[in-house]
Specification:
The structure is a homodimer of 584-residue chains. Chain A has 15 helices and 31 strands. By secondary structure, the first copy, chain A, is an alpha+beta fold. The first copy, chain A, has 3 domains: 273 residues, 2-Layer Sandwich (BirA Bifunctional Protein, domain 2), CATH 3.30.930.10; 128 residues, Alpha-Beta Complex (YbaK protein), CATH 3.90.960; 106 residues, Anticodon-binding domain (Rossmann fold). In chain A, the strands form 8 sheets. In chain A, strands 3, 7, 8, 9, 10, 11, 12, 21 and 24 form a 9-stranded mixed sheet that branches. In chain A, strands 16-14-15-17-20 form a 5-stranded mixed sheet. Chain A has a 5-stranded mixed sheet with strand order 28-27-29-30-31, with helices on both faces. In chain A, helix 12 links the parallel strand 27 and strand 28. In chain A, helix 2 crosses helix 11. The two termini of chain A are 47 Å apart. At the A-B interface, strand 1, strand 2, helix 2, strand 4 and helix 5 of A face strand 1, strand 2, helix 2, strand 4 and helix 5 of B.
Chain lengths: 584, 584
């Protein structure tokens, strides 16, 4: 490929709306173009990268006995009625009608389609286990698309679905897939990805893991234990009660606290420890605006995912008006309006004496003891774990918090879809059962952007050779000089004949600086600089994009040198692809 | 791949709703499953075939300097506003809104997206020409999806867009692409595909060609000349006036014709030659229900595509009520109501004396001479060419009519999209122009079904090796016999080691008949039958799906034999891939 013919503009200025590097570099390098809110077209450079990522995914899925299929992007609403998700999924699901007024959806995930495809096929136990997968476009109407290819509305995704006759068999395959995912990420140049326990969200099921690329710009908050192997997404991390040692039981007293509408204000006013205060955070159910009140200790935050899972339906931050049953700023668990659904966090358990709202304007209780003062006080886990919290696995106070990009996820779905959609098989004894499912996703475009995020410098991406758009980039510094151009052209031919993918920049009248800037933005791992000066010494200058190699190589040895360099790069990647074993 | 693990059911009964063979066979063979009206999932066998077709297309597009990109399936309506197609395209275009009430469409073709992608990039003539393509899902809300994968609503399509600075350059590239398409079809096993001139329809532009696989079950009607190379889609075929030699000029007379509401009835009543009669076919504009009246000679039919192109907007068959300006059954061109838009076909030109409706209930004119009696009579081409009509190319009466499946199409688009979307480039002199576009489509699934239609027998598809799901199918006839199974298993391993794609049927307890029926439905070109009887003679029986080969081959020579057979099959296909040259 000649660079002069490569479709896509490269430019110097960082676009104003880019807050993360991969987004800015991929726009600046002509990888993609924004078509609409969270909708991109892929230009040839990116399409070459995504094609290579897709090929790696395909190989690894085939290697674990996956069979590739293709589900439609547009699905009849009936299928989503069967699973119940037509109603239960929020506005991320695009619903529309066709010319005959039939209801359709844009599939954002394909559990229903997978069950539909195999429910007649897999009616006897002898067909199990099996896994089907596809690489297909999906559309999810995200409220806030952002960060370039990291959070988009339309994307290419590999989604796989496995079917089993026992939980043990699912777990066995889940572990195999868990390993395959590590191989995929390692082969694509991000072996540093870690798994974390995650929340299953709208997918159903219990156990699930996310593959996280740790980076400060990540959207996900991840909880690590410094003492043991515990890793979880903040959304899923269990928070262990750790009651403060201070405070003694007191008499319950209602006292005036004028203008103390925040927990900080009331603690300051009463000179109380925030660890002995009870904070209310109020939501409403999307369905009917019923109030849902979450009480957590004053120094904790509500984990909305855990709360939502408990409530069992979609909620949103409440708007409380004067006519409502709740008194904004003075809400407490004692004698709260019966209309509200109340959840009390485990961080409030075992505290002898609390400050809490009195459910009347301008008043708080002090000396509140929930176990003593409430009838049947029950405590649930709805708070966010914090830096230094108790590890739910080893029990040590060793929790640290980092950020990451989710590059893949795997779920043990159980029978949610097979049951709701009436898929059954007959076992050895002639009895009927619902098969148990697993599902396994990787976003292709997000993976490309994540690799860029993990491998770039100030000047552009540093693509791992396994997914780089080309393997070698020839810069012919004086294409107007006949001998130089001839030497570069010859190398271009020879490398291609040797089966190497080459991008060849033979533009005339482009300054070396501009040429190198372009090469940096395209991020090809091996670069050959052909110039009259180098040729005077009968050499090419060969460098690597990661700056570890810079050598003058005799013209006659260049192809062999490059082949060796390329092979070393692939070898390095292969070395990172190790067997890993999950302990679920 | 072991057949026992292959996802998908095979069955014997022809599904009731299948009217064409490929549809029935592909359902019976477990290639696909219907998900909704015109929406299918591809099972693994079909996905393997479509993947191979995609690979062939990709190679040929890359070979003519195409650069692969990826456009979104979901596009903002704004882009379609720019081209005017948001309004001009009918209900095939799915329109919907997202959570923010932004208008979106499901792309059914990507001209707008292509212009959007490159309009900043290609602002100077030095960037031209270039071609971008994608292989992507599309959705077209067809009124009547049918015939399995032949006419669906959602489909995978390769669509390519080329950009040029002159008509000559477009034509040069168009010819290159024309050839590439022949190579694609030949490589996929259907070299018999022919091109026909076609109507450009909603795409805009003038010259366009369709690639047709001739078959009686085809939806398209194709016009051939037996004397010259003329070939056209019926929709686009020019009809040449061929006035009957009979009849003399007469006086115009209005006469009573009670209950003669059809052209046949009035000709019988008046004992007139149908070739001297004038038939009215009435339409209404979709936009405002204005009447559009098409007059053709009594023995011709209206070509709605040509009429629609003249009218310049969508029309539908009219419903005429008693209060309308037209008198149903008695409509004629003389003194017709001024509210109606009138088109008179060239088949009515030069006829001295016509029978035609008198625009009053129960009356017709006789002796109507359009050139004499109408002011400024103009004749246009809106009739369907017929068997035996005059060839518009060589002028001989040698037209024959056949049917075909459209497997690809190429269009010279002109500046329709670049002009409407404001894409310009600067030429050598600094002047600005709109680039000229070509576009080039192939439906992947339809191509698979067409190949099946072209290559099948009563028992299943006979896939060409280049796109077959596997190259070799091993039937182990007595898998319960240890030696037989060992021999088959060894061959399976050896063939795979030799880089051959093998499907291995080692199911126990399946009768040979059932095993062969399955093999026939899967249609793998080379079959190896391993049985105790054959092994007694130390042989495998090797056959081909097309029944041209049936040989007993010594076990030790089987791999070599199969490799040779495979190579011969590929060689045969390569021989059909010849250079062809277009004469536009």
């Amino acid at each position: 490929m000649k660079l002069a013919k490569l479709i896509g503009d490269r430019f110097k200025e960082k676009p104003a709306d880019c807050v993360i590097d991969s987004h800015a570099l991929m726009l600046r390098g002509g990888y993609m173009k924004n078509v609409g809110n969270g909708i991109f077209s892929e230009l040839p450079i990116l399409r070459r990268i995504t094609a290579k990522i897709e090929a790696i995914i395909r190989e690894e899925m085939d290697a674990i006995d996956g069979q590739e299929v293709l589900f439609p992007v547009v699905l009849p609403a009936d299928l989503w009625d069967e699973s119940g998700r037509y109603d239960s999924v929020g506005s991320e699901l695009i619903r529309f009608t066709d010319r005959n007024n039939s209801r359709l959806v844009l599939a954002m995930t394909h559990e229903e389609a997978a069950v539909h495809l195999v429910r007649e096929y897999a009616q006897t136990y002898t067909k199990y286990p099996f896994m089907i997968y596809q690489i297909q476009r999906k559309f999810r109407d995200e409220a806030r698309p952002r960060a370039g290819m990291l959070r988009v509305r339309e994307f290419t995704m590999k989604d796989a679905y496995s079917f089993h006759t026992s939980q043990e068999d699912l777990e066995k395959y889940y572990a195999i897939c868990y390993d395959a995912y590590y191989r995929i990420f390692a082969r694509a140049g991000i072996p540093e990805v870690v798994t974390v326990a995650s929340d299953s969200g709208m997918m159903g099921g219990n156990i699930s893991h996310e593959y996280m690329l740790l980076t400060p710009i990540g959207e996900d908050v991840i909880v690590f234990c410094e003492e043991c192997d515990y890793r979880a997404n903040m959304e899923a991390a269990e928070n262990i009660a750790d009651p403060p040692s201070t405070g003694e039981e007191q008499e319950l007293q209602c006292i005036e606290t004028p203008d103390c509408k925040t927990i900080d204000a009331v603690c300051t006013f009463l000179n109380a420890d925030i660890k002995s205060s009870c904070k209310a955070v109020v939501y409403q159910k999307n369905r009917d605006d019923t109030f849902v009140v979450a009480f957590v200790r004053g120094d904790y935050e509500v984990n909305e995912t855990k709360l939502r899972n408990l409530v069992g339906e979609e909620i949103h931050p409440a708007e409380i008006t004067e006519t409502d049953c709740l008194v904004a700023g003075y809400i407490g668990p004692y004698q709260i309006a019966k209309e509200a659904e109340v959840y009390i966090d485990i961080t409030l358990k075992g505290i002898p004496s609390l400050v809490a709202g009195a459910n009347q304007e301008g008043f708080h209780y002090v000396g509140l003891n929930l176990e003593r003062d409430l009838e049947n006080a029950t405590f649930v886990d709805i708070s966010k774990i914090q830096e230094g919290s108790i590890c739910p696995c080893c029990g040590k106070k060793a929790i640290t918090i980092k950020r990451g990009i989710e590059v893949g996820n795997i779920f043990q779905l159980g029978t949610k879809y097979t049951k709701s959609m009436g898929m059954k098989y007959t076992d050895e004894k002639g009895e009927q059962h619902y098969p148990i499912m697993g599902c396994y996703g990787i976003g292709v475009g997000r993976m490309a952007a994540s690799i860029c995020e993990a491998h770039h410098d100030d000047y552009g991406p540093v693509w791992p050779i396994s997914i780089a758009p080309w393997e070698v980039h020839i810069c012919c510094l004086r294409a107007d000089d006949e001998d130089t151009k001839a030497a570069a052209g010859k190398l271009y031919e020879e490398l291609q004949d040797a089966g190497i993918e080459v991008l060849y920049d033979d533009r005339e009248g482009v300054r070396p600086g501009a040429m190198f800037s372009d090469a940096d933005l395209i991020g090809v791992p091996i670069r050959v600089i052909v110039s009259p000066r180098n040729l005077k010494e009968s050499c090419f200058e060969i460098t690597t994009r990661d700056k570890t190699v810079r050598e003058m190589v005799p013209v006659g040895e260049a192809v062999t040198f490059i082949q060796k360099l390329k092979e070393e790069m692939y070898q390095k990647i292969r070395e990172t692809v190790k067997e890993r074993r999950i302990c679920i």
